[in-house]
Automatic annotation (TrEMBL):
Keywords linked to the UniProt accession: Aminopeptidase, Cytoplasm, Hydrolase, Metal-binding, Protease
The name this protein goes by in its record: Methionine aminopeptidase 2
InterPro entries tied to this protein: Creatinase/aminopeptidase-like (IPR036005), Met_Aminopeptidase_Type2 (IPR050247), Pept_M24 (IPR000994), Pept_M24_MAP (IPR001714), Pept_M24A_MAP2 (IPR002468), Pept_M24A_MAP2_BS (IPR018349), WH-like_DNA-bd_sf (IPR036388), WH_DNA-bd_sf (IPR036390)
Role description: Cotranslationally removes the N-terminal methionine from nascent proteins. The N-terminal methionine is often cleaved when the second residue in the primary sequence is small and uncharged (Met-Ala-, Cys, Gly, Pro, Ser, Thr, or Val).
Positions bound to a divalent metal cation 2: 253, 322, 355, 450
Alphabetical GO biological process terms: proteolysis
Organism: Lobosporangium transversale
């Protein structure tokens, strides 16, 4: 063996002792290709480089595959989260829709037709204006015993607040819509129909408290048109709108004065200020005469100029506020609007109509004109009636009105006919009282404002107070 062949033999053995390189070489070679022994050493470096590149590509590929798998997993997770979010969003949307239905509040129509019980679905009605008592009665506000008594009377207060809310909504509609040229019957029917709708009139459970007064100019009170009355309101008229609402006999008695000519503004301001003064002075253990003195002082401080002549506003001294009992509009106590007179005190739990009347005339009224207002006497004893028609009419009055005031139009509405003589007979025997219109001197102008208050154990509440007056 020559030295050259021995050297080649060692080289071949050395090549065989490199398994890693040999494996790499086999991987890099294509099937069916052969490497010559002479070129194997020359190509080692290239083969190694190729193997390394291949390994790198495999790693990259595996990494890419792994990343893709992770991305796929992420996408699956995202899909699951998106699905969960969509489901949650749908549920929230449904919940919101459901809540929106609950929160949707019913609003009143024009003219008012929706009962207040539908607007206040929880059947809890808004309070009026709450006022603290003065001086010695301030302790009542936080007294626990008095607060307990007040909670005990919640149902009673809630009934009268319902009547108050009806009054507010009806009168605000009336104030917007009464215009010169309307007949007095139109005005009264607008107010009365609205009241019946909103209070859900139902016999003696709820309904109109007394006939709608719409006294004009020198007529101060107790005028409502009888059927066939064609009186029309004019631009220069001063109209007193006085109407009542009751729920379970608890009556809200409230009035305002309507004018179109600003010349009467001071007359209205005087009477409104006087009424608010009476409300401010009213309270438990307050003497009625003291309230009257305060009212007179305020009202007489005003003047009004009409057609170049100046008038001091005078309180109508023979018209008064009054206490109110269930189904009894005049309960016995009178609240004067001039000084002097009744020393009686107001008491806890009483309801009062604080009303004041101002006039440019004498400040004194008398009965005149055709009568329209009537009311059955509250505590009348049994009286024998000879006229069968009077007996029938009395039964109708007891059933439809009880001791609440009514007017001829109401009898017409329920289908009574030819009742005038029977009604006169009931008045003559003392079963029914007649309340003719009350007027000052012709050519004078009178105004009225009125609110109903309750003297609760802790505070007084002006039940009929609204944004308008």
């Amino acid at each position: 063996m020559t030295m050259e062949s021995l050297s080649n033999d060692f080289k071949d053995k050395a090549e065989l002792n490199k398994p890693e390189l040999h494996g790499q070489q086999q991987q890099s070679e294509q099937p069916g290709s052969e490497a010559s022994p002479a070129s194997s050493g020359k190509k080692n470096k290239k083969k190694k480089k190729t193997a390394t590149a291949t390994d790198s590509n495999e790693i990259k590929e595996e990494k890419a595959n792994g990343d893709k798998a992770e991305d796929d997993d992420d996408e699956d997770d995202d899909d699951e989260e998106e699905g969960a979010n969509t489901t949650e969003a749908t549920a929230t949307k449904k919940k919101k829709k459901k809540n929106n239905k609950k929160k949707k509040k019913t609003t009143q129509t024009e003219p008012p037709t929706i009962p207040v019980s539908k607007i206040f679905s929880n059947k809890i009605y808004p309070e009026g204006e709450i006022c603290d008592y003065k001086e010695d009665n301030l302790w009542r506000t936080t007294n626990e015993e008095k607060r307990y008594l007040e909670r005990q009377n919640f149902d009673q207060y809630n009934d009268v607040r319902r009547a108050s809310e009806v009054h507010r909504q009806v009168r605000q509609y009336a104030r917007r819509n009464i215009k010169p040229g309307m007949s007095m019957i139109e005005i009264c029917e607008m107010i009365e129909n609205g009241t019946r709708n909103l209070v859900e009139a139902n016999g003696m459970e709820a309904g109109i408290g007394f006939p709608t007064g719409c006294s004009l100019n020198h007529c101060a009170a107790h005028y409502t048109p009888n059927t066939g009355d064609k009186t029309v309101i004019q631009y220069g008229d001063v109209c007193k709108i006085d109407f009542g609402v009751h729920v379970n006999g608890r009556i809200i008695d409230s009035a305002f004065t309507l004018t179109f000519d600003p010349v009467y503004d001071n007359l209205l301001a005087a009477v409104k200020d006087a009424t608010n003064t009476g409300i401010r002075e009213a309270g438990i253990d307050v003497r009625l005469c003291d309230i009257g003195a305060a009212i007179q002082e305020v009202m007489e401080s005003y003047e009004v100029e009409i057609e170049g002549k100046t008038y001091q506003v005078k309180p109508i001294r023979n018209l008064n506020g009054h206490s109110i009992d269930p189904y009894k509009i005049h309960a016995g106590k009178s609240v004067p609007i001039v000084k002097g007179g009744d020393q009686t005190k107001m008491e806890e739990g009483e309801y009062f109509a604080i009303e004041t009347f101002g006039s440019t005339g004498r400040g004194y009224v008398h009965e005149d004109m055709e009568c329209s207002h009537y009311a059955r006497v509250y505590d009348v004893q049994h009286v024998p009636l000879r006229l069968p028609r009077a007996k029938t009419l009395l039964n109708t009055i007891n059933k439809e009105f009880g001791t609440l005031p009514f007017c001829r139009r109401y009898l017409d509405r329920i289908g009574e006919q030819k009742y005038v003589l029977a009604l006169r007979n009931l008045v003559e025997v003392g079963i029914v009282d007649a309340y003719p219109p009350l007027v000052d001197t012709k050519g004078s102008y009178t105004a009225q404002y009125e609110h109903t208050i309750v003297l609760k154990p802790t505070q007084k509440e002006v039940l009929s107070r609204g944004e308008d007056y």
